Amino acid sequence: FAACRGDGLERAREYVSGLLVADKGNMLRMEEAICGADEQALQHFLSNTTWDEKAVMAQVASDVDRCLGDQADSCLILDESGFPKKGEHSVGVARQYCGQVGKVDNCQVAVFAVLNCGDKSSLVDGRLYLPKEWINDRKRCRKAGIPAAEYRTERTKHSLALEVVRTAQARGLRYRWVGCDAFYGKNPEFLRALQTAGETFVADVHKNQVVFLEDPCRAGVEPKGIRVDEWMQGRPAKAWKRVQVRSTTKGLLRVEVLHQAVWVWDGREKKAQQWRLLVRREVACPTKIAYVLSNAGPDVTVRRLAYMQAQRYWVERVFEDAKNEAGLGDYQVRGWKPWQRHIALVAMAMAFLLQERLRHAEDLPLLSCRDVTSVLKQVLRGRQMTPENVARQMERRHRRRQQAIESAYARQRLSEASGSS
Hints:
The chain is of the alpha+beta class. It has 16 helices and 12 strands. The chain has helices at residues 7-21, 27-33, 39-47, 53-68, 132-135, 138-144, 148-151, 157-170, 182-185, 188-196, 228-233, 302-310, 313-325, 336-359, 369-384, 387-420; strands at 75-84, 94-98, 103-117, 120-128, 177-180, 201-205, 210-211, 226-227, 241-248, 251-264, 273-282, 289-294. The strands form 2 sheets. Strands 1, 2, 3, 4, 5, 6, 9, 10, 11 and 12 form a 10-stranded mixed beta sheet that branches. Strand 11 (273-282) and strand 12 form a beta hairpin. The longest helix has 34 residues, at 387-420. The model has no long low-confidence stretch (mean pLDDT 89).
């Protein structure tokens, strides 16, 4: 809370507490769940007060790094998440693919970074994606408060992901590799940019990814590429190697893998990239296949590479916890800056949940984010759910409902009067 001085400090505490204990992460529910909280004051805190949300996110990232960074299994995982929204006024909202509902829908989409180590993870950054229809509408951007010089230009999700990585580097986060799914892995420029930035990457790719089994740029070699799924189909059954990648609540997860040194070339580069291809299929479900490219060095074993790829699993668990336990998608803001601030405070709430799980790991190794928020709800609500407080909350709800009813009738009378004239 260092960046939220004065009255903002108390509002920040109320907001983060509300994210963790309110039934939904919106400010009406926060007011009911947190003693002394006020919806309008929280709205003002997010929209109009002076504090640096970037500094908050940087501090959160540093705190998470102290918990999970600089270990053999520390990694930075990149992924996007969508937030279904109604209407057209929320910043960045458009009809686009939303993973939460599994189809194209009206939603906002953001690119996130998660710092992971073993089975523990937490958010350390997030960037809102602006579709072209927003970039091309200056009036809409001004109304949403999007800074003109820096952000009203077209930036792909891949470029946002690279910004996230460069920011992680600038903040000194300590991780061994960057993991991402096939949406990012399919972009060769993105992978080359990661390599240029000095990162080791482990990236899923699509089955139609073309690789070369010999250096296509070497003199005397005819450049002849092959799709990774076709290469896999040509491998004998004995080439598959069974490895164990992680423990699960249902037992050890074992997979079978193929491995090959390959070259990746776009036909224009003077030098092809020599990377590693890993094909993974689950023992329990052989049709579930992942294709992976990595620039990890020869000191990384095939077993280790398979483990590194499997860690991407945890990013979905982080999104699930952030949405269900920390209000990631339940915000009541439309503008650019309030959205950034909400994400920073959600990351703070997630960092708290991480620290609590680590603090009690020895005695309660199965402690989950849901367990922590369940305890918080009992403790915080138990302190304030006196008959007097319940009556005051009910009075406020009824007052708002009555105001909404009167407003609706007033609009109806005005409409009727305009029609008769």
